[in-house]
Amino acid sequence: MKTLIRISTAAALAAGLSLGGTAAQAAGGHGGPELMHPSWSFEGIYGRYNEDQLKRGWEVYAQVCASCHPLDYMHYRNLEGLGYTEDEVKEIAAQFEVRDGPDEWGEMFTRPATPPDAFAEPYENDALAKLANGGVVPPNLSVMTRARDGGADYVYSLMLGYEGGVPEWVHEEDPDFALPPGKSFNAYFPGYAISMPEQLFEGAVTYSDGTEATPEQMAKDVTAFLQWAAEPELEDRKELGRYTLLFLIVFTGVLYAYKREIWKDAH
Amino acid sequence: MSSTPNPVWSNRAIKWVDRRMPIFTLMYNELVVYPAPRNLNYWWNFGSLAGIALVILIFSGIFLAMYYVPHEDMAFASIERIMRDVNYGWLIRFIHMNTVSLFFLCVYIHIFRGMYYGSYKAPRELLWGIGVIIYLVMVGTAFLGYVLPWGQMSFWAATVITSLVTPIPWVGEDLAIWLWGGFGVNNATLQRFFSLHYLFPMVIFALVFLHLWALHTTKSNNPLGVEVKKKADTLPFHPYYTMKDAFGLGVALIALAFFVFFAPNYFNHAINYVQADPMVTPEHIVPEWYFLPFYAILRAVPDKLGGVVLMFLSIAIWLALPWLDTSKVRSGRFRPLFKWFFWLLVIDFCILTWLGAMPAEGAYVTMGQWATAYYFAHFILILPLLGWFEKTKPVPESISAAVTAGHDKEAAA
């Protein structure tokens, strides 16, 4: 009976893991270099966000990304999750303008944002977004790390994957490769030709905590912020998961002992 | 249905109800004293486990439906709202998403257990057939549910699967338009998919009761495949199998909790977190893991209609299994040749699963065709012939005789 349990759990796990793995590979799998993998504080079953890092990441988003990329489904009140106080969040929100109305004269108007407001959209509609960005709409970033194979590693690598020209290895892969006008070369982007130009130049943001704004630092911080934006429940989820697993393992042990007790004369 | 004497109820309320509608007597007979073969091994856990997975799915689904909005412009955002703003919405959704994988895993093990131990043979043909129909409705339900988040893979899976009807001669095109409620997958499609995704689990639930009715009429098969003959062959369902099932459930919940809390999107495709866009086709359209073997069979045939027909036959052929298997011996334990062919089928099924996730090109196509051919050969050639040629081992007199004589080597399975 024990061998059976062992075989079945091993088979079930192996099947599950390999299937999930192959499915994920089939859906992803582009050419180009391996994704970079810096150490993330939110990895593993004890993973947590680093609030200082999230705040720096928010500064990168607000100063660099926000002019083109929306954070759909999110509200200014969510920023309390970065460790800002209620008053700080009010102050931050007030720096942004949101559209409201109609007022009593039937007119739409703009006003400073408040914590319950959804994040301001950078463009009023997709047509304007396309007009300003060479014909493509800058994607929403609030689910980005969930929406790409490789997750945080992909976002981080992409931020740092720009190269001035087309490197030699690309021509070895595809001799006819030519960068279309208006596109930039990015080693991690599927097809290598990305519409967004390089953003994270040395000193592109001024961190309020005085951290030196190197491209690696900014890429890491903004990726952590986007991971938080995509999975704000992560810390709660992992904490609850640890207690749930601990309980289930102990309880299942008790069940097994009880089962053996009941069955001891039945075999 | 049971031969044990009916219980005498001392509680007056229970007595009053039971006199007018013997529901307590029914539960007592079917869940407490129900005589189950004493030699059921852990492979017999997966039926009740699948049933519990169904209940978890129905409950979590009811709560998701309170917040989900089945509209092409709002569906994707409503899921994000569940994940972000509904209290523990992420937990309910991740439980719903991952329990589907648990459900299919249990049902696949349950089906292959039935194949190995000959649980489909007389008098259990109907029990088996109802099970196959439950599986078919499950497939439909899971597909409908995968469309609801309205991500890229949702939309394109819906497009690919509904387009399967188009090669049907004469009516195919019209049938597709009728299914879509338009000239392609659109808002009407999403709304009817939501409606049906809520309905089908209730159908499955009803079918599970028929499945159990048939089971409790013919009684459980067992690893030896010999019928229960006397009381010594059995144990009362409670506490023996309630406890064994409870332990199995504990193990399953540990695995489920691991994925829900630490790898909630493991079985999902990242691209399904990109909102559906009819103008952008994803690079690869890959179904969920539990559909992969049948997807591989679909793609093994160069002709579209032929592929669809073969895919349906690959499941429908299970309905004919009781008559395709000509062997008089039920359990694979006493069939030395069948045992090998059974495991070959399992391997073939795994290969098909793997191929379903691979792009349909080059060697994968040829391998898919061979694996598909072998899959059907198992049912229409090997099984009928084995019954004639195979020299089976002697089958024990009774379950209790085998247990006391020590024949019941669990490891033999």
What do you see in this structure?
The complex is a heterodimer of chains A (267) and B (413). With 267 residues, chain A is mainly α. Among the domains of chain A are: 31-74 and 119-232, Orthogonal Bundle (Cytochrome Bc1 Complex, Chain D, domain 2), CATH 1.10.760; 241-267. Helix content of chain A is 45%, strand content 6%. Chain A has helices spanning 2-27, 51-63, 86-94, 126-132, 144-147, 151-160, 168-173, 215-230, 234-263, and strands at residues 97-100, 109-112, 162-163, 184-186, 193-194. Chain A has a 3-stranded antiparallel β-sheet with strand order 3-4-5. In chain A, α2 (51-63) packs across α8 (215-230). The radius of gyration of chain A is 24 Å and the shape is globular. The model of chain A is unreliable at 1-7 and 13-29 (pLDDT under 50). Chain B is mainly alpha-helical and 413 residues long. Chain B folds into 2 domains: 35-286, Cytochrome Bc1 Complex, Chain C, CATH 1.20.810; 287-325 and 336-391. Chain B has a two-stranded antiparallel ribbon. The longest helix of chain B has 32 residues, at 187-218. Mean pLDDT of chain B is 95; it is low at 407-413. At the A-B interface, α1 and α9 of A face α4, α5, α10 and α14 of B.
- Name the quaternary structure: heterodimer
Overall shape of chain A: it is globular
Secondary-structure element string of chain A: HHHEEHHHEHEEHH
CATH topology of the largest domain in chain B, which one?
A: Cytochrome Bc1 Complex, Chain C
CATH superfamily of the largest domain in chain B, by name, is Cytochrome Bc1 Complex, Chain C
**Helix count, DSSP H or I runs of 4 or more residues of chain A:** 9
Report the C-alpha radius of gyration of chain B, rounded. Answer: 23 Å
**Which CATH-level-2 architecture of the domain at 31-74 and 119-232 in chain A?**
Orthogonal Bundle
Low-confidence stretches of chain B: 407-413
Average pLDDT score of chain A: 90
Q: What's the CATH topology name of the domain at 31-74 and 119-232 in chain A?
A: Cytochrome Bc1 Complex, Chain D, domain 2
For the report, how would you describe the main beta sheet of chain A? 3 strands, antiparallel
pLDDT < 50 stretches of chain A? 1-7, 13-29
Which term fits the overall shape of chain B? globular
What's the main sheet of chain B like? 2 strands, antiparallel
